[in-house]
Write a structure and sequence with these properties.
240 residues; alpha+beta; eight-stranded antiparallel β-sheet
């Protein structure tokens, strides 16, 4: 909570702290649904949080958390009396109050896989080979191969992250964090990365090398030129 209130921190870090608070401590509807409900309650209509909205959201979280703790305290007091009277098994209602918040399928407000397929069909022509994969139920990938088979790229998306990869012994990537619950905004983020992947397949990139900090070995840095922008892709850790 202190990180959310810290006015000296960049707004992006404060938003990340709020999301961490939701994910780790209080998301009774599941993370995405709770965040969407919270944004609606504080009147957040834009793509990004504003500071006033962030502070109102924190107030709602604290009020909700206090109400939850009050209910837990009531259950605990009642259970002490019941145990003293010999009733060892709590009621189903009391058990539900004490359970951790659980993920519900209804909380997945955007079909990320469908968004990825739609954007890929829009950005890439039929000559580009596609290999769609789902390494887990929250992550969607597509491996893209140029028509001549010489270059390969990939896109990996989840509820919060959009990544573009280039392969061919380069294994470099760039990542964007997208916490938006609006499908059009999520599609825009995927589309930007897809255009970078397309530029790589078209050969619109340069490679330079820099020394790694630890082993002082040369590592490739790929600069992809797409839509007047230069994407810098660095050596990645892994592709699932």
């Amino acid at each position: 909570m202190r990180r959310v209130l810290d006015a000296d921190r960049p707004l992006g870090q404060r938003v990340a702290a709020l999301h961490s608070l939701l994910a780790n401590h209080h998301a009774p509807l599941g993370f995405l649904a709770t965040r969407a409900a919270l944004r609606s309650r504080v009147g957040a209509t834009g793509r990004r949080w504003r500071e006033t909205e962030l502070l109102r959201a924190l107030e709602h979280i604290e009020a909700s958390r206090a109400a939850h703790l009050e209910r837990v305290a009531e259950v605990a007091a009642r259970r002490r009396v019941e145990k003293a009277a010999g009733r060892r098994q709590p009621s189903a209602a009391d058990t539900r109050v004490l359970e951790e918040p659980r993920w519900t399928p209804a909380a997945a407000v955007i079909d990320i896989g469908a968004v990825l397929r739609q954007v890929v069909d829009e950005v890439f022509g039929p000559e580009v080979l596609r290999d769609h994969r789902e390494p887990d139920r929250h992550t969607h990938q597509v491996v893209l191969t140029s028509a001549d088979g010489a270059r390969h790229a990939g896109l990996q998306v989840s509820d919060e992250v959009v990544e573009v990869w280039v392969f061919d012994d380069l294994d470099a990537s760039a990542m964007s964090f997208e916490y938006d619950d609006v499908e059009a905004h999520k599609a825009d983020a995927v589309r930007q990365m897809a255009r970078a992947a397309r530029a790589h397949l078209d050969g619109a990139f340069t490679i330079r090398h820099r020394r790694s900090l630890l082993r002082r070995r040369l590592r490739p840095v790929v600069e992809v030129h797409a839509d007047g922008r230069v994407w810098t892709l660095r050596r990645a850790v892994f592709w699932r």
